[in-house]
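pasting for ref
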Amino acid sequence: MTSTQFPHSQPLLEIIREHTPLTFAEFMNTVLYHPQYGYYSSGTVGIGKEGD
């Protein structure tokens, strides 16, 4: 598996390289709120009755 196969993982890999060890809080913050790929920030997730 490479970052080119999963480009959304690249920001997380960069953070891990810069801030090892990565805390669970830092990991969750990145995967949930990254401006482009974050679960909530990407704009692809609906929140509420029709959402997740």
